[in-house]
UniProtKB/TrEMBL annotation:
Keyword line: Membrane, Transmembrane, Transmembrane helix, Transport
Keyword presence, Manganese: no
UniProt-listed PANTHER family: XANTHINE/URACIL PERMEASE C887.17-RELATED (PTHR43337), XANTHINE_URACIL PERMEASE C887.17-RELATED (PTHR43337:SF1)
Entry keyword Plastid: no
Name used for this protein in its record: Nitrate reductase
Matches recorded under Pfam families: Xan_ur_permease
Length: 458
């Protein structure tokens, strides 16, 4: 059996081991696990039942990762995208007035279109036509964006009236936890330990438990809200049968999208569908490109020609809409598993299994807080930042300006899609200004038009 699994995934052939795949899977799961609890909170603000979303998040993510692992055989994790669920809840439902049932139907239709683009190979052709500097700038911008968000979630940076953001201060215990984890990860990284990401999170979790112990021993005092945000060991039994969320999903969200397909012919529904498609298409393209750069053994052109990799997340979104959650996407956090040493689809299968088990063992996830995941996010940002050398800085300002806008605007606007849109449009215009119109790939003209249409939806 062990030999058959090895041959199926190509573990030995890829230079990996079972230990590295297991460690990579566990690392990726810990880095992604927050979505299990955050997604129900965000979609709950759109009126969706939180118990149902909790279970649909787990089930759809697990199915998507099984597809990625068993079919595409590539080490990536998939789950409901944080930017997409925010668009779903705040823009589509709360601002546009759509019901969450209609919004799910929009996700369903956009995912079907996404699958057709992916399986037909059109998606990979479009991505290959995007200039290298644009793609690499997207990778760098995404890395900074991820690190920025992790700094914010852990309290390292906070809002400031004068300077917009400022250092949060060490009075917040989560800042101490995050920095301790970063230093732990840095220690192992400079010593070329392939488990630096995982060990960084372990260090952060241990630090958090020590702080909680210090409070209980009256060594120092923290507010109740601060103590509640700290990692903690599960109270009582760590095993809980998820009967309630499973029944909620089956009774309240399962197949609701299908029942609302008759409302998809209105103008505003079509706009929402195309916007979902646009965000998922280019956001996932950037994430996948970033993930590919972390596997030196694979050539970028072979990666881009792999329609299975580019179809897995589209199929995942389809299942997500059926079970009751917003669009799924490849998680940049799962790159931590690749950095930890994973090289095959076995990692994705392991993450899928851990997601399913989390429905029973979710009290254990009380150890995983935003501060605990910060070391992983920071290291991902560091690895992705290295791609800045692949941008053609000597290719003229017609390539420098779009790259700069993408890198800067992604974290500053908090929108991956907007950063890409501004990069696409500025590239088109700068090439025209430079009288190099003939060098613009035909696909980029279409992308520019779509980008303009997207700006009108903001």
């Amino acid at each position: 059996m062990k030999e058959k699994i090895d041959q199926f995934f190509g573990i030995t052939k890829s230079g990996s081991t079972y230990k590295r795949e297991l460690t990579g899977g566990l690392t990726a799961f810990l880095a992604m696990s927050y979505v299990i609890f955050v997604n129900p909170i965000i979609l709950g603000q759109a009126g969706m039942p939180k118990d149902a979303v909790f279970m649909s998040t787990i089930v759809s993510s697990a199915l998507a990762m099984l597809i990625m692992g068993l079919w595409a055989r590539f080490p990536l994790g998939l789950a409901p995208c944080m930017s997409m669920n925010a668009f779903f809840a705040y823009s589509v439902v709360l601002q546009m007035g759509k019901t969450w049932q209609e919004a799910l139907a929009c996700v369903l239709v956009s995912s079907v279109l996404f699958i057709l683009l992916a399986i037909s190979g059109i998606r990979s052709k479009i991505i290959r036509s995007i200039p290298v500097s644009i793609k690499q700038a997207g990778t760098v911008g995404l890395g900074i964006f991820i690190a920025f968000v992790s700094f914010k979630n852990s309290g390292i940076i906070v809002p400031d009236e004068g300077m917009f953001i400022t250092f949060g201060g060490f009075h917040n215990p989560n800042v101490i936890i995050a920095f301790f984890g970063i230093l732990t990860a840095a220690f192992f990284l400079v010593r070329k330990n392939q488990y630096a990401v995982f060990l960084g999170m372990i260090g952060a979790a241990i630090c958090g438990l020590f702080i909680r112990l210090g409070v209980s021993m009256d060594w120092f005092t923290l507010s109740e809200s601060a103590v509640a945000s700290l990692p903690q060991l599960p109270a009582g039994s760590p095993i809980v049968v998820p009967t309630v969320p499973m029944e909620a999903m089956l009774n309240e969200t399962f197949l609701v999208a299908v029942k609302n397909l008759d409302k998809m012919l209105s103008a505003d529904s079509i706009i929402v569908i195309l916007t979902f498609l646009f965000l998922d298409f280019f956001g996932t393209a950037t994430t996948l490109s970033a993930a590919a750069t972390q596997v030196s053994e694979i050539k970028s052109e072979n990666f881009e020609d792999n329609t299975r990799i580019y179809s897995a997340d589209a199929i995942g979104s389809f299942f997500g809409s059926l079970f009751g959650t917003s669009s799924l996407s490849t998680y940049i956090e799962s790159v931590s598993g690749i950095i930890a040493g994973a090289r095959t689809g076995l990692m994705s299968v392991i993450v899928a299994i851990l997601f399913l088990l989390s429905a029973f063992l979710y009290p254990v996830l009380s150890l995983v807080t935003p501060a605990v995941t910060t070391p992983a996010m920071v290291l991902i940002g560091i690895f992705m930042m290295q791609n800045i050398t692949k941008i053609k800085w000597d290719g003229g300002f017609e390539e420098i300006i779009p790259a700069f806008l993408i890198i800067v605007m992604m974290p500053l606007t908090g929108s991956i899609a907007l950063g890409l849109v501004l990069g696409f449009l500025s590239y088109e215009l700068c090439m025209i200004f430079a009288k190099r119109t003939g060098e613009i790939p035909p696909v980029m003209h279409v992308v520019a038009l779509i980008s303009v249409a997207y700006l009108f939806t903001l």
